[in-house]
Design a protein that fits this description.
This protein is mainly alpha-helical and 90 residues long. 73% of the residues lie in helices and 0% in strands.
């Protein structure tokens, strides 16, 4: 029962924070719909993992922004250090 309440509370928080998450996705991607969707999903996963530790010591949107921003920065850094593969022409 408690798990169900936590899930409902998380989903409500996501609904309230959707525009914040979406704005960060647009800031950190090339705005390609697939890339925006991937980043959005990564941010939601990070929020879900962090949700049990949210204590309400700051505004909910401040917390969401912080998690979303850090997730986006991490994803961009990871892409920057990933090896790039280029096709070899004959």
């Amino acid at each position: 029962m408690k798990q169900n309440r936590e899930h409902i509370a998380f989903m409500e928080m996501l609904r309230r924070s959707d525009s914040t998450i979406f704005k960060i996705c647009l800031m950190f991607t090339d705005r390609d719909p697939e890339n925006v969707k991937d980043m959005y999903q990564d941010i939601v996963c990070s929020l879900w993992e962090s949700w049990p530790r949210f204590r309400g010591q700051c505004k909910e949107n401040t917390w969401v922004y912080s998690i979303a921003f850090n997730t986006a920065v991490s994803q961009v850094r990871h892409r920057a250090i990933s090896p790039m593969f280029l096709p070899l022409d004959d």
